[in-house]
Structure formats: C-alpha cells, structure tokens
Design brief:
alpha/beta; 6 helices; 3-stranded antiparallel beta sheet; 233 residues; Rossmann fold; 6-stranded mixed beta sheet; 26% strand
Amino acid sequence: MKIKAVLIGCAGEGDDYLPGVSKDIQGMYDYLLSDRGGQWKSNEIVKLETKFKSRIENLINEIRSEENDFVLFYFAGHGSYSHLLGRKFYVDDEDFFTQQDIGVFSEKQICIFDTCANFERSITEKFEFGVESRTYDSMGYHRNKYLAWINQCPSQKVSLYACSEDESSGESEQGGDFTQALISSAIHSNEDLSILEAFELAKPKVVRSSQNEQNPAYNIRPRSGKKLPFSVA
C-alpha cells in the first residue's frame, strides 16, 4: 500500500509571523512516526515550510501524480473565509490557495487545516513527543494495524478545520491549539481512534480553552462507513 503525508507550513512574516507553525509541523511529523500515529516511514512524509506558492503547487502536483492509496494533507498558517471561494489558506500576504486548488489526491484522504477562517468583509476580495529514530525492520504491529485499517475503509474524503467560519484559531509558543489538542487526545487515549473520533475528543478542549471563541469543524463524504484512522493503540 502506498501512503503519503504532506505537511505544509506557512508562518508569515513581520507582525503576522506565527512562531508555532514550525512546532506544529514537527509535532505532526513526530506523531506520525510514533506507534500511535501508525509508524509511518520517514520517506513517506514530506515537510515543506515556505512562502512561495509555486513550491506548494509543484508539491501538490507531484503527490497527485504518485497515485497513492491514502494521503494525509496537513496545513498550518494563516487563513480566512471567502463567500466566493470558501476557505483560503495563505502562503504570504497576497498569495493563497483554496481547498478546490488542492483537489483530490487519492480515493482515501484526510485534510487537516489549522488556520483562521474569519469572514472577508471587504466588497472586493483580494511537539515534541520524544520519538526515537527507528529502522523499518523494527516496525511492525502498529504500522500493520494502521495500514490494514485504511484498507478496510471505503473511499472517503475527510477535512478537519481548526475553527468554524468567521472565527480565529489560537496558538501559543507550543503551536496551534487545534493541532496540539488533536495530537494530545490521540496520545493520551488508550483506544484506537478514527480521524472523526480524534476530532470529537479534541474539539471540546479547544472550545473550552478558547471560551467558545474557537469551534473546530469537519466535513466528511460519504457519511456512512468505517472512518480512516488517526491513532492506533
């Protein structure tokens, strides 16, 4: 089975710089390598921190051409919500891409976006988890269980968002609140968690810590059937 994780961070510059983006990217990378994250191999994970849209476009096209069986796409950075284009994910002050630009990577995919989604109101729209390095020979149970789980799932497209429309997403020096809650929920659970179950554990933590100002959301198609994995016990 061919699987690929794409972790993209766009931290911004100047007053808009988000210091937690790099930690989020590394935290998600470490989590995927861990037993709970599915024992991904390092060559199955691509990390990209950039301020150039062309690099993201090239990477997306490359991943799409690989014909993977499962793709996990993660983005951390700035975002907004456009009534014309939907959610927008910013590479810098002007360049952005949308979920339509990302498109479909594979028959089974998860997209996670840790960004704000404030409405554009102008008329004219313009962790560290101590993961030790390991060889493939030392991998086994968790990876096999993770891959078998993916294989049992029907085709589906899952998108997680750090906040609802017209809301901002919070972060600390440790990274984005949603990303940290998602990974923490998985690590501290003693059970297997589908991506939807992990989301349902993380959401109340974010809502509570933000005093109801940040409400994570998701979209999944189709609604029925076994959901893709996020954590294996």
